[in-house]
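Sequence in, structure out. First:
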Amino acid sequence: MSTGGKLLQLIRWESHGILELLLALLAIFVPFTLAIAYFYIKEKLREEKRKELFFSYARKKGLTKEEIEIIWKYSQILGLDPYLVIDYKVPFEKVMDYYLENDPNADPELVTRLRNKLGLTTLPPYVPLSTTKDIELFQKGELYFEKTTDTIPIVLIDKDEFYMYWATERKHPRLKPGEKVNIKFLRKNDGYYYLKNLEIKDVIDESFRLVLKLPHTRKFERTQFREYIRVEVELNCKISEPLKEDKSGNLPPPEKVKWYFTKTKDISGGGVLVCFSTGEKDIPKYNIGDRVYLEIDLEGSTIFATGEIRRILEKKDFICYGIQFIDISEEDRKKIINFVNDYIRKMSGILPSEVE
């Protein structure tokens, strides 16, 4: 074979090899590309369906298309479930704050309108504050300055989407725009809150009082009022008659005492509140300091504890007993604490880190 013929044959072989390589690559990449396209389209359709269902759900709550679009958009940006945002106050406030801070066309009146439509105007008492927007009107507190012991009594009289308005009857030379102040207050059944380095934006002199205009914040310190967080929840419960020690100082075995059936009014890792209707014939009578056995149904498991009556609340139609656990296994106490935290998350739609 001539040299030219050998060269032509070599070119044909190389061309054939390149063609086989291209076909092999196509055999790999075409199905791969199609698979990616399939899953992308499938996910887009699923997302569109999810959005459609959410819009339908939100419209039933009386929201307009514009309002729903805003909630959907900013929920996606923050990675929050939009259903939680329109059902629970904490995630709602988080999304609305982001909207007000980042949307150049943000409408504060829309946020207020949404909050009222969704019934998210108040925070459950067992849920810690996540923003100063959740402070109840007429909350009393004390204003103070750094490195001083002087305090000024104040009360929250108004608030909007950007500012809170605290009033005081006492005048002070440092109460002026631009001055940095601190506020502390006790939220009932929750704890002490400390708001620090708030800049006074304006001072309104109403002759009989001064009104301080201060910006809202999510940054504050909290000292829990109780050792354990308490939630209001009804759980099936049994409580024994008052326990009496024998001559050796031992309490009677649980099977030897009389039991009464009731429900909890609230519960925490430290104790429980139980109530009885005064209209019932057979209800127990306790005194402060009495010890009792307790059996509480907690999500399929039974919590057994010995408690002591610490307070008695008598009303017209019922009587309640506040009971402190004095003998409970750490495992059962932990179960109650976990239940309380899970209950708060469930009822408020908030993240675990915002509770613990």
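Second:
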Amino acid sequence: NRRDGLRLLPVQIGYPTPAEKVFLPMEKSVCGQVFQTGKPLYIGDVREIPFYHEGASEVRSELAVPVRVGDRVIGVLNVESREVNAFDEEDIAFYTAIAGQLGVALENARLYREERRRRQEAETLYRAVQALTTTLDLQEVLGRILTELRQVVPYDSASVQLLEEGVLKIIDGRGFPDLDALPGFVIDPRKEDNPNARVLESRAPVILEDAPATYEAFHPPPHADIGIRAWMGVPLLFGDRVIGMLTLDKREPGFYTEEHARLAMAFAAQAAIAIENARLYRRLERQSAQLAQAVKELQDLNRLRNQLVQNVSHELRTPLTLIQGYTELLLNEGLGQLEPAQRRALKTMEEYIRTLSHLIYNLTALRTFPRETLALMPVSIVEIVGQLLEEEKQLARSAGVSFNTDLPDDLPPVLGDRERLDLVFHHLIDNAIKFSPNGGDVHIRAWADEEWVYISVKDEGIGIAPEHLDRIFERFYQIDGSTTRRFGGMGVGLALVWEIVEAHGGTVEVESEPGKGSNFTVRLPQAKEVPS
């Protein structure tokens, strides 16, 4: 001990006083001077020097040589004799050599002891961390932290404190009189008389040799009840965040060392990870439950919606058929001659009946399509689109829209269900007409490569905002769902387009920009083989 003096190791021969009780002052002893100077010192007659420390009354001469490890003096080898001038130069050389070997042996022993201690610490820390990481239950993790911490660093009492909204909340404790009252106890680190603030601010361990002498916060219960003297606070760090801290207390003043702090920090780093993993798992569990509930509600809504669609389409079909029949009867003057105004009114009715019939057909197709089998055969896309353009000619004319087509006659056939593909291109052409301005053009092109046939339908209409592009093919999705929307529809047509094309092994892509129109491109596989 360089500060207070030398204490002899309990390895001695020929002395009456036990070595562990012998204390040699650094300045006023032969061994102390040798330790300080690093040079051998020989005293021929110890009665002639005032600073001789009497080990045995009959000693007359003394020889002390330094024990070194490299350039560092770690102790002193001291020999004494009952004879005056008992030692000579050969003895000094002999004991100096012995001291050199002793230094090597002591250092090897120290290194071995240190290595064994480090290995035991690592094994203890590993077992403690393993115990923390075998569960993702937050309460169980918090409960295990202090149990495992005791295996790494000794304590008489300890606590886990988590940082929440600027204050520390004690989550768990050990060694306190009233443990049940401890969880939930709040510590405000912003108060001046508080060592916890130093831990949080420095993000490093803080050691107090005598906590009550340093902070009044340790005077009242529960600290005073258990006689806390030494205290150590260790931060719980996760990434760049302080999520809380651990506190360890001992009744022995000055108990905790930097080595204890190093071990506690290593443990705290793993404890913080275990806490955050458990917190994340709890959040994921909560979110998973919320998502499961949301999915169930959506499934219920979807089921109710499908049931409503089925009921509405079924209930409307019969009366609409009757209305359509009587309208045709009246237009054919089967019930008498019509005035021009009456005929115009009936024509308007007929147009709206046709629109409503088409809507009911789409609803029915949407409901039954996934369960129906496609009747695949080689189909000419040019023929389907050409026929549709002929049928839509009157609608386009009344909307002030012109068709611009590029449909090669030698376009390869596709393998498809004609009725379903007719529905696909009917919706795309109908939408292009509906969204085009008066005087606009609808561009329809078709081309092919070695594997696929492509058909694009492009309008010059209002376009689609980017935030809607990923959803326009969803069932019943409407870009403008308000009651005052400009364009009609129930969000069914594009959903049918997507599902039918996908069932054919094809794809639908859309390019659009608000104010610049939309371009839908359908890709379908060529009919290289006719299915049997």
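Remark: The chain has a mean pLDDT of 83.
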